[in-house]
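pinned: reference chain
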Amino acid sequence: MRKATKIFFTPFILSIMAMAASCSNPQPGTAGGTPVSIQWKKLGELPGDLNQDAPKTNPGLAGPVAGITGNYLIVGGGSNFPDGLPWQGGTKTYYAKLYTYRLEQSGPLDTAILTNIESQLPYQAGYPACVSTDQGIVVAGGENLQGPLNKVSLISLSAAKDSLLIRPLPDLPEASSGGMIAVLDSKLYFAGGNNASGSTSTAFLSLDLKDTSEGWQPLPDLPQPIGFGVLYAAPDTHTLYLASGRKANPHARTSFFSSLFAFSTQSQSWHKKADLPYSVSAATGVRFQNKLLLFGGDQGETFHKTEDLLIKIADAKDNRQKQELIQQKNNLQQHHPGFTHQVLSYDIDQDRWELAGKLPFASQVTTTAISWGDKVIIPCGEIRAGVRYPDIIEAVLNPGK
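pinned: its C-alpha coordinates
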Protein backbone atom coordinates (compact mmCIF):
# COMPACT_ATOMS: atom_id res chain seq x y z
CA MET A 1 0.00 0.00 0.00
CA ARG A 2 1.27 3.45 -0.83
CA LYS A 3 1.79 5.75 2.12
CA ALA A 4 -0.62 8.69 2.32
CA THR A 5 0.97 11.83 0.94
CA LYS A 6 0.28 15.25 2.41
CA ILE A 7 0.07 18.09 -0.08
CA PHE A 8 0.42 21.65 1.21
CA PHE A 9 0.77 24.94 -0.62
CA THR A 10 0.97 28.62 0.22
CA PRO A 11 -1.98 30.56 -1.18
CA PHE A 12 -1.70 33.00 -4.01
CA ILE A 13 -4.16 35.78 -3.24
CA LEU A 14 -6.23 37.45 -5.88
CA SER A 15 -9.14 39.79 -5.18
CA ILE A 16 -11.92 40.06 -7.70
CA MET A 17 -14.92 42.36 -7.82
CA ALA A 18 -18.38 40.91 -8.26
CA MET A 19 -20.31 44.15 -8.76
CA ALA A 20 -24.06 44.64 -8.33
CA ALA A 21 -26.15 47.01 -10.44
CA SER A 22 -29.69 48.32 -10.58
CA CYS A 23 -30.69 47.11 -14.02
CA SER A 24 -30.39 44.16 -16.38
CA ASN A 25 -27.65 44.59 -18.95
CA PRO A 26 -25.85 41.99 -21.06
CA GLN A 27 -22.74 44.16 -21.19
CA PRO A 28 -20.09 43.91 -18.46
CA GLY A 29 -20.39 46.50 -15.71
CA THR A 30 -17.49 48.55 -14.46
CA ALA A 31 -18.54 50.24 -11.23
CA GLY A 32 -20.54 49.95 -8.03
CA GLY A 33 -21.57 46.86 -6.12
CA THR A 34 -20.26 44.58 -3.41
CA PRO A 35 -16.79 43.01 -3.70
CA VAL A 36 -16.13 39.29 -3.35
CA SER A 37 -12.55 38.54 -2.40
CA ILE A 38 -11.17 35.26 -3.73
CA GLN A 39 -7.94 33.64 -2.56
CA TRP A 40 -6.58 31.20 -5.14
CA LYS A 41 -4.06 28.47 -4.53
CA LYS A 42 -2.89 25.11 -5.78
CA LEU A 43 -4.34 22.53 -3.39
CA GLY A 44 -2.75 19.41 -4.83
CA GLU A 45 -2.15 17.32 -7.92
CA LEU A 46 -2.76 13.88 -9.35
CA PRO A 47 -0.08 11.35 -8.37
CA GLY A 48 2.54 10.32 -10.88
CA ASP A 49 3.59 6.78 -11.70
CA LEU A 50 5.91 5.84 -8.84
CA ASN A 51 6.44 2.27 -10.03
CA GLN A 52 8.70 3.21 -12.92
CA ASP A 53 12.49 3.22 -12.74
CA ALA A 54 12.22 6.85 -13.79
CA PRO A 55 9.08 8.20 -12.04
CA LYS A 56 6.67 9.97 -14.38
CA THR A 57 4.49 12.95 -13.58
CA ASN A 58 0.77 12.56 -14.17
CA PRO A 59 -0.30 14.14 -17.50
CA GLY A 60 -3.67 15.12 -16.02
CA LEU A 61 -7.22 14.43 -17.11
CA ALA A 62 -9.86 16.15 -19.21
CA GLY A 63 -13.51 15.47 -18.48
CA PRO A 64 -12.75 13.85 -15.10
CA VAL A 65 -15.14 12.36 -12.60
CA ALA A 66 -15.02 14.92 -9.77
CA GLY A 67 -16.88 15.56 -6.53
CA ILE A 68 -16.80 15.59 -2.74
CA THR A 69 -18.39 13.07 -0.38
CA GLY A 70 -17.88 13.20 3.37
CA ASN A 71 -14.98 15.69 3.11
CA TYR A 72 -13.21 13.39 0.67
CA LEU A 73 -12.41 14.64 -2.82
CA ILE A 74 -12.77 12.04 -5.57
CA VAL A 75 -11.05 12.62 -8.93
CA GLY A 76 -10.60 10.12 -11.73
CA GLY A 77 -11.98 8.69 -14.92
CA GLY A 78 -11.47 11.24 -17.68
CA SER A 79 -9.20 11.08 -20.69
CA ASN A 80 -5.75 12.04 -21.94
CA PHE A 81 -3.21 11.20 -24.64
CA PRO A 82 -0.55 9.02 -22.96
CA ASP A 83 1.37 8.14 -26.13
CA GLY A 84 1.59 11.56 -27.77
CA LEU A 85 -0.58 14.57 -28.53
CA PRO A 86 -3.24 14.31 -31.28
CA TRP A 87 -1.10 16.00 -33.94
CA GLN A 88 1.71 13.57 -33.06
CA GLY A 89 -0.53 10.60 -33.73
CA GLY A 90 -1.48 10.06 -30.10
CA THR A 91 -4.63 8.14 -29.23
CA LYS A 92 -7.18 9.39 -26.73
CA THR A 93 -7.41 7.02 -23.76
CA TYR A 94 -10.27 6.87 -21.25
CA TYR A 95 -9.98 5.75 -17.64
CA ALA A 96 -12.00 4.24 -14.79
CA LYS A 97 -9.50 4.69 -11.93
CA LEU A 98 -10.49 6.97 -9.05
CA TYR A 99 -8.15 8.87 -6.69
CA THR A 100 -9.29 9.80 -3.18
CA TYR A 101 -8.08 12.79 -1.14
CA ARG A 102 -8.97 13.58 2.46
CA LEU A 103 -9.70 17.29 2.76
CA GLU A 104 -8.75 19.08 5.95
CA GLN A 105 -9.90 22.62 6.63
CA SER A 106 -7.40 24.93 8.25
CA GLY A 107 -8.33 28.45 7.21
CA PRO A 108 -6.57 29.62 4.04
CA LEU A 109 -4.05 26.77 4.26
CA ASP A 110 -6.17 23.69 3.56
CA THR A 111 -4.58 20.35 2.88
CA ALA A 112 -5.47 17.55 0.49
CA ILE A 113 -4.08 14.21 1.63
CA LEU A 114 -3.88 11.48 -1.00
CA THR A 115 -5.18 8.32 0.65
CA ASN A 116 -4.60 4.63 0.08
CA ILE A 117 -8.22 4.16 -0.99
CA GLU A 118 -8.04 2.74 -4.50
CA SER A 119 -11.13 2.19 -6.58
CA GLN A 120 -12.52 2.51 -10.06
CA LEU A 121 -15.79 2.90 -11.90
CA PRO A 122 -17.19 -0.27 -13.47
CA TYR A 123 -16.60 1.39 -16.85
CA GLN A 124 -14.31 3.98 -18.40
CA ALA A 125 -15.84 7.47 -18.59
CA GLY A 126 -14.76 10.91 -19.73
CA TYR A 127 -16.83 14.10 -19.89
CA PRO A 128 -19.65 12.96 -17.58
CA ALA A 129 -21.89 15.38 -15.69
CA CYS A 130 -20.93 15.29 -12.00
CA VAL A 131 -22.61 16.70 -8.90
CA SER A 132 -21.99 16.26 -5.17
CA THR A 133 -25.08 15.35 -3.13
CA ASP A 134 -25.85 14.36 0.45
CA GLN A 135 -25.87 10.72 -0.69
CA GLY A 136 -22.62 10.86 -2.64
CA ILE A 137 -21.22 11.95 -6.00
CA VAL A 138 -23.48 11.39 -9.00
CA VAL A 139 -21.74 10.64 -12.30
CA ALA A 140 -24.13 10.83 -15.25
CA GLY A 141 -23.40 9.97 -18.87
CA GLY A 142 -20.07 10.78 -20.45
CA GLU A 143 -18.25 8.87 -23.16
CA ASN A 144 -15.55 6.33 -23.86
CA LEU A 145 -14.17 4.63 -26.99
CA GLN A 146 -17.58 3.03 -27.60
CA GLY A 147 -19.26 6.45 -27.70
CA PRO A 148 -21.60 8.38 -25.39
CA LEU A 149 -22.88 6.63 -22.26
CA ASN A 150 -26.27 6.44 -20.60
CA LYS A 151 -24.90 5.00 -17.34
CA VAL A 152 -25.36 6.82 -14.03
CA SER A 153 -23.40 5.97 -10.88
CA LEU A 154 -23.43 7.09 -7.26
CA ILE A 155 -20.06 7.17 -5.44
CA SER A 156 -20.00 7.30 -1.64
CA LEU A 157 -17.58 6.56 1.18
CA SER A 158 -17.91 3.42 3.28
CA ALA A 159 -18.86 3.79 6.96
CA ALA A 160 -15.31 2.85 7.92
CA LYS A 161 -13.95 5.42 5.44
CA ASP A 162 -11.62 2.83 4.00
CA SER A 163 -13.27 2.18 0.62
CA LEU A 164 -15.56 3.69 -1.99
CA LEU A 165 -19.02 2.32 -2.62
CA ILE A 166 -20.22 2.59 -6.21
CA ARG A 167 -23.78 1.68 -7.09
CA PRO A 168 -25.81 2.22 -10.24
CA LEU A 169 -28.67 4.68 -10.51
CA PRO A 170 -31.31 4.45 -13.28
CA ASP A 171 -29.83 4.89 -16.76
CA LEU A 172 -30.45 8.07 -18.70
CA PRO A 173 -33.12 7.61 -21.40
CA GLU A 174 -30.49 8.52 -23.99
CA ALA A 175 -26.70 8.37 -23.95
CA SER A 176 -25.17 11.81 -23.43
CA SER A 177 -21.68 13.31 -23.25
CA GLY A 178 -21.02 16.85 -22.07
CA GLY A 179 -24.38 17.12 -20.31
CA MET A 180 -25.03 19.25 -17.24
CA ILE A 181 -26.36 18.23 -13.83
CA ALA A 182 -27.43 19.83 -10.54
CA VAL A 183 -29.23 18.78 -7.37
CA LEU A 184 -32.12 20.72 -5.83
CA ASP A 185 -34.51 19.63 -3.06
CA SER A 186 -33.29 15.99 -3.19
CA LYS A 187 -33.89 15.82 -6.96
CA LEU A 188 -31.29 15.50 -9.69
CA TYR A 189 -31.73 17.62 -12.83
CA PHE A 190 -29.91 16.60 -16.01
CA ALA A 191 -29.73 18.82 -19.10
CA GLY A 192 -28.65 18.45 -22.71
CA GLY A 193 -25.33 17.06 -23.91
CA ASN A 194 -24.35 15.38 -27.16
CA ASN A 195 -25.93 12.05 -28.15
CA ALA A 196 -24.60 9.09 -30.13
CA SER A 197 -25.43 10.73 -33.46
CA GLY A 198 -23.38 13.80 -32.54
CA SER A 199 -26.45 16.00 -32.16
CA THR A 200 -26.88 18.29 -29.16
CA SER A 201 -29.96 17.57 -27.08
CA THR A 202 -32.76 19.74 -25.66
CA ALA A 203 -33.68 17.03 -23.13
CA PHE A 204 -34.27 18.09 -19.53
CA LEU A 205 -34.85 15.39 -16.93
CA SER A 206 -35.27 14.86 -13.20
CA LEU A 207 -34.64 11.93 -10.85
CA ASP A 208 -35.89 11.79 -7.26
CA LEU A 209 -33.01 10.58 -5.10
CA LYS A 210 -35.46 9.64 -2.33
CA ASP A 211 -37.23 7.20 -4.63
CA THR A 212 -35.43 6.28 -7.86
CA SER A 213 -37.89 3.54 -8.83
CA GLU A 214 -39.66 5.77 -11.38
CA GLY A 215 -36.41 6.58 -13.15
CA TRP A 216 -35.69 9.80 -14.98
CA GLN A 217 -38.77 11.93 -15.66
CA PRO A 218 -39.05 14.33 -18.63
CA LEU A 219 -39.40 18.05 -17.96
CA PRO A 220 -40.02 20.96 -20.36
CA ASP A 221 -37.28 20.93 -22.99
CA LEU A 222 -34.36 23.31 -22.81
CA PRO A 223 -34.95 26.59 -24.68
CA GLN A 224 -32.23 25.51 -27.12
CA PRO A 225 -29.94 22.47 -27.55
CA ILE A 226 -27.02 22.89 -25.13
CA GLY A 227 -23.96 20.88 -24.18
CA PHE A 228 -20.89 21.84 -22.14
CA GLY A 229 -22.68 24.58 -20.23
CA VAL A 230 -23.01 25.15 -16.48
CA LEU A 231 -26.14 24.22 -14.51
CA TYR A 232 -26.57 25.96 -11.13
CA ALA A 233 -29.09 25.33 -8.34
CA ALA A 234 -30.57 28.10 -6.16
CA PRO A 235 -32.56 26.27 -3.44
CA ASP A 236 -33.89 29.41 -1.75
CA THR A 237 -35.88 30.32 -4.87
CA HIS A 238 -36.42 26.76 -6.21
CA THR A 239 -34.65 27.80 -9.40
CA LEU A 240 -32.08 26.30 -11.73
CA TYR A 241 -29.86 28.44 -13.96
CA LEU A 242 -28.30 27.22 -17.20
CA ALA A 243 -25.42 29.35 -18.51
CA SER A 244 -23.32 29.32 -21.70
CA GLY A 245 -22.48 26.10 -23.58
CA ARG A 246 -22.49 25.10 -27.22
CA LYS A 247 -24.40 23.24 -29.93
CA ALA A 248 -22.95 20.95 -32.60
CA ASN A 249 -24.06 21.71 -36.18
CA PRO A 250 -23.75 19.18 -39.03
CA HIS A 251 -20.92 20.11 -41.42
CA ALA A 252 -20.83 23.65 -40.01
CA ARG A 253 -19.32 25.63 -37.17
CA THR A 254 -20.43 24.80 -33.64
CA SER A 255 -22.65 27.47 -32.09
CA PHE A 256 -21.24 28.96 -28.88
CA PHE A 257 -23.74 30.55 -26.48
CA SER A 258 -23.78 33.60 -24.21
CA SER A 259 -27.26 32.76 -22.93
CA LEU A 260 -28.56 32.39 -19.40
CA PHE A 261 -31.90 30.70 -18.72
CA ALA A 262 -33.72 30.14 -15.42
CA PHE A 263 -36.04 27.22 -14.72
CA SER A 264 -38.59 27.43 -11.90
CA THR A 265 -39.25 24.02 -10.36
CA GLN A 266 -42.52 25.44 -9.00
CA SER A 267 -44.00 26.76 -12.27
CA GLN A 268 -42.09 24.19 -14.39
CA SER A 269 -41.14 26.86 -16.90
CA TRP A 270 -38.05 28.44 -18.46
CA HIS A 271 -37.30 32.18 -18.49
CA LYS A 272 -34.64 34.14 -20.37
CA LYS A 273 -32.17 36.11 -18.26
CA ALA A 274 -29.38 38.58 -19.04
CA ASP A 275 -26.79 37.29 -21.51
CA LEU A 276 -23.18 36.79 -20.55
CA PRO A 277 -20.84 39.48 -21.95
CA TYR A 278 -19.42 36.92 -24.41
CA SER A 279 -20.07 33.42 -25.73
CA VAL A 280 -18.23 30.60 -24.00
CA SER A 281 -18.41 26.84 -23.45
CA ALA A 282 -16.82 24.17 -21.24
CA ALA A 283 -16.42 26.62 -18.36
CA THR A 284 -16.94 25.73 -14.70
CA GLY A 285 -19.03 27.53 -12.12
CA VAL A 286 -20.67 27.56 -8.69
CA ARG A 287 -23.40 29.51 -6.92
CA PHE A 288 -22.15 31.63 -4.00
CA GLN A 289 -24.83 33.41 -1.97
CA ASN A 290 -26.84 35.49 -4.49
CA LYS A 291 -24.25 35.22 -7.26
CA LEU A 292 -23.39 32.75 -9.99
CA LEU A 293 -19.65 32.57 -10.57
CA LEU A 294 -18.30 31.31 -13.89
CA PHE A 295 -14.62 30.46 -14.29
CA GLY A 296 -12.71 30.46 -17.58
CA GLY A 297 -14.04 28.56 -20.57
CA ASP A 298 -13.49 28.30 -24.31
CA GLN A 299 -14.58 31.36 -26.32
CA GLY A 300 -14.30 29.36 -29.52
CA GLU A 301 -11.83 31.26 -31.70
CA THR A 302 -9.32 28.43 -32.17
CA PHE A 303 -12.13 25.87 -31.90
CA HIS A 304 -13.87 27.44 -34.91
CA LYS A 305 -10.66 27.77 -36.95
CA THR A 306 -10.02 24.08 -36.35
CA GLU A 307 -13.56 23.20 -37.40
CA ASP A 308 -13.19 25.23 -40.61
CA LEU A 309 -10.07 23.26 -41.49
CA LEU A 310 -11.74 19.93 -40.65
CA ILE A 311 -14.60 20.79 -43.01
CA LYS A 312 -12.11 21.67 -45.77
CA ILE A 313 -10.21 18.43 -45.12
CA ALA A 314 -13.41 16.42 -45.42
CA ASP A 315 -14.27 18.17 -48.69
CA ALA A 316 -10.78 18.02 -50.22
CA LYS A 317 -10.56 15.87 -53.35
CA ASP A 318 -6.83 16.20 -53.89
CA ASN A 319 -4.61 14.23 -51.48
CA ARG A 320 -1.84 16.84 -51.54
CA GLN A 321 -4.31 19.56 -50.65
CA LYS A 322 -5.72 17.40 -47.87
CA GLN A 323 -2.27 16.83 -46.35
CA GLU A 324 -1.54 20.57 -46.45
CA LEU A 325 -4.81 21.28 -44.65
CA ILE A 326 -4.04 18.59 -42.05
CA GLN A 327 -0.68 20.22 -41.41
CA GLN A 328 -2.39 23.61 -40.98
CA LYS A 329 -4.80 22.08 -38.46
CA ASN A 330 -1.97 20.39 -36.56
CA ASN A 331 0.00 23.65 -36.38
CA LEU A 332 -3.08 25.50 -35.17
CA GLN A 333 -3.72 23.01 -32.38
CA GLN A 334 -0.05 22.73 -31.46
CA HIS A 335 0.08 26.49 -30.86
CA HIS A 336 -3.29 26.72 -29.11
CA PRO A 337 -3.18 29.82 -26.85
CA GLY A 338 -5.24 28.26 -24.07
CA PHE A 339 -8.61 29.41 -22.77
CA THR A 340 -9.94 32.63 -21.29
CA HIS A 341 -8.80 33.40 -17.73
CA GLN A 342 -11.78 35.65 -17.15
CA VAL A 343 -14.06 35.19 -14.14
CA LEU A 344 -17.68 36.33 -14.47
CA SER A 345 -20.16 37.04 -11.72
CA TYR A 346 -23.95 37.14 -12.17
CA ASP A 347 -26.06 38.91 -9.57
CA ILE A 348 -29.29 36.93 -9.28
CA ASP A 349 -31.21 39.80 -7.66
CA GLN A 350 -30.12 42.38 -10.25
CA ASP A 351 -30.08 40.08 -13.30
CA ARG A 352 -26.69 41.41 -14.28
CA TRP A 353 -23.31 39.96 -15.28
CA GLU A 354 -20.02 41.57 -14.29
CA LEU A 355 -16.42 40.99 -15.32
CA ALA A 356 -14.89 39.80 -12.08
CA GLY A 357 -11.13 39.32 -12.32
CA LYS A 358 -8.93 36.62 -13.80
CA LEU A 359 -7.71 33.15 -12.92
CA PRO A 360 -4.05 33.19 -11.78
CA PHE A 361 -3.50 29.62 -13.02
CA ALA A 362 -4.00 27.87 -16.34
CA SER A 363 -7.68 28.07 -17.26
CA GLN A 364 -9.21 24.60 -16.85
CA VAL A 365 -12.07 23.58 -19.14
CA THR A 366 -14.13 20.35 -19.36
CA THR A 367 -14.05 19.76 -15.62
CA THR A 368 -16.28 20.47 -12.62
CA ALA A 369 -16.07 23.27 -10.04
CA ILE A 370 -17.09 21.86 -6.64
CA SER A 371 -18.42 23.92 -3.73
CA TRP A 372 -16.92 23.08 -0.34
CA GLY A 373 -18.27 25.43 2.32
CA ASP A 374 -17.07 28.89 1.35
CA LYS A 375 -14.51 27.40 -1.02
CA VAL A 376 -14.38 26.07 -4.57
CA ILE A 377 -12.22 23.20 -5.78
CA ILE A 378 -11.45 22.80 -9.50
CA PRO A 379 -9.56 19.59 -10.35
CA CYS A 380 -7.65 18.87 -13.56
CA GLY A 381 -9.29 19.62 -16.93
CA GLU A 382 -7.87 20.65 -20.28
CA ILE A 383 -5.69 23.78 -20.62
CA ARG A 384 -4.93 23.69 -24.37
CA ALA A 385 -5.96 21.50 -27.26
CA GLY A 386 -5.00 17.97 -26.25
CA VAL A 387 -3.08 19.14 -23.16
CA ARG A 388 -4.43 17.98 -19.79
CA TYR A 389 -3.81 19.40 -16.33
CA PRO A 390 -2.79 17.38 -13.23
CA ASP A 391 -3.30 20.16 -10.66
CA ILE A 392 -6.17 20.67 -8.21
CA ILE A 393 -6.97 24.34 -7.62
CA GLU A 394 -8.84 25.85 -4.67
CA ALA A 395 -10.51 29.23 -4.29
CA VAL A 396 -11.55 30.69 -0.92
CA LEU A 397 -14.60 32.93 -1.31
CA ASN A 398 -15.02 35.88 1.06
CA PRO A 399 -18.23 37.93 0.76
CA GLY A 400 -17.98 41.70 0.69
CA LYS A 401 -18.92 43.73 3.72
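why pinned: The CA atoms of residues 314 and 322 lie 8 Å apart. The longest helix spans residues 319-334.
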